[in-house]
Input
Amino acid sequence: MIRFVAQRLLQTIPVIWVIITVTFFMIRFVPGGPFTSERAVSPEIMRNLEAHYGLNRPLYRQYLDYCSSILHGDLGPSFKYPTRSVNEIIADKLPVSAELGMWSLAVALVIGLPLGILASVSRNTWIDYACSFAVMLGICVPTFVLGPLIILLFAIHFGLFNASGWYSPIDRVLPSLTLGLFYAAYVARLTRGGMLEVLSNDYIRTARAKGAGEARVILRHALRGGLAPVVSFLGPAIAGIVTGSFVIETIFEIPGIGREFVNSAFNRDYTLVLGTVILYAGFIIVMNLVVDIVQVWLNPRLRFE
Amino acid sequence: MRPLDPDRGHSPWSDAWHRLRQNRLALAGAVVLVVLSVACSAGPFFSQSYREQNLDLGAMPPSLSHWMGTDDLGRDLLARTLYGGRISMTVGLVATFVALAIGVTYGAVAGFVGGKLDSLMMRIVDILYALPFAIFVILLMVFFGQNIFLLFLAIGAVEWLTMARIVRGQVLSLKRMEFIEAARALGLGRRRIIFKHLIPNVIGPVIVYTTLTIPGVMLLEAFLSFLGLGVQKPMSSWGVLIKDGSEKMEEYWWLLVFPCALFSMTLLSLNFLGDGLRDALDVKASKD
Output
């Protein structure tokens, strides 16, 4: 087990390295720089700024310096937020996104799982069709459509919530709902598919023949196997949810890290772009590893392969 | 429903057509799409101009003369929504075609040639997958400037990866199948095998995935417009209208609701049609 995890983590090092290298050079080839702005800056100041951040050195030197500072766990200074380091920005904003992500995940599971199970046990009835339609709606209506509509209805029309902000616990409700419903739709779709595949197995018939109640058959015997596709989906999805959503954080004005993924590219904040990319890629890789471990726990047959 | 005539032979395509016709949701999706495309392509010729301003009128809620109301510059929202739909659908189709052309060629070459070239080409795809694609598109857009034709190319250049994987997998498994070997044994040339036997068998998954790529592309276009990187004024697309609508929704709800409704309806129809085609052609392609 420990060997397996260690092996997998070692394999990810070249992948991360390639991602860092490609992103590093890609963002440098984009015209403009972190200090290009509407305001004219005198050439001396520009030179001093570039010298301060080491931007006047040859590109390969900067690349090597960056690589060595990463090995020390330092993601470098931010260009857009002077006096702040990328490590500080991430430490500051990631918890906000992560909290929003956890609530959204809860929404996704609490709505998605029961809906998927319900649809699979009542296959090809109107309940199943209604669930499928709701699921398709959830997948097709993007968050930047659903978010404003939810604000329009619950914040402006009924006046139940604040339209934006991230201050009191009640401000968590609308963003979590908006982000969570999209994932709930996927979870429901995958749960239904996984359950349908499992329910036709022999061991389910055996459980029924033994006289196990329907609820016990579904929840105890079928669900464990039926969750496999959901778990595979949730791995990378959690990585995406936790590192924040640009759209949700923009619409609801939430100070999370998700906004920095896009804004840093606009600002040519080279170190912050790389920092967010490394953060995201790292999360994805770790979550995929967790998925593989959970899959074995859910389906012990995999242990012998 | 007319049952299939058991005495007559029928091709896999007629079987698929028969199955598709029984899927009501897919048919409804197809009908909605036809209606919307006709409305979007012909509508702007009949309705008021999408850029004609009427500042005295200002923003008016839906009425008999303006079915979807007008925006704060007095422009008819129905005309603007139809015109925006035209752009969104064009982007969807053209960018998907770009993705199709790159993906099918790349995947077919990798699958057919195989060996070292195949593994090299697929590692490249793996790495491109791992890059956060939003950043990639934004970089392309900033790099190439905000030209609508480059927007097609940029989106197409991002969306071809899955297509390449699907086609490669298909070609890889098909070229080892017995009917290909039989064709070879019958003395058919390589060209004839590729065009007569391989391509027709790849078309099914490609059609299915194409119908599912179009909504993905339209979403991406709308997302870029939402960021202000997509279609530029005075042109508009559904993404632009939704963005404008969400900025003004506190006073003028209709500016948000109608573009959202048409956009979601189109995506929903495309997905239902795509799912129906998948079931009809019995393709085991991945869902995303």
Observations:
- The longest helix of chain B spans residues 77-113.
- The interface with chain A takes residues 127, 130-132, 134-136, 138-139, 142-143, 215, 219, 222-223, 226-227, 242-243, 245-246, 249-250, 253, 256-257, 260, 263-264, 267-268, 271-272, 287 of chain B (CB under 8 Å).
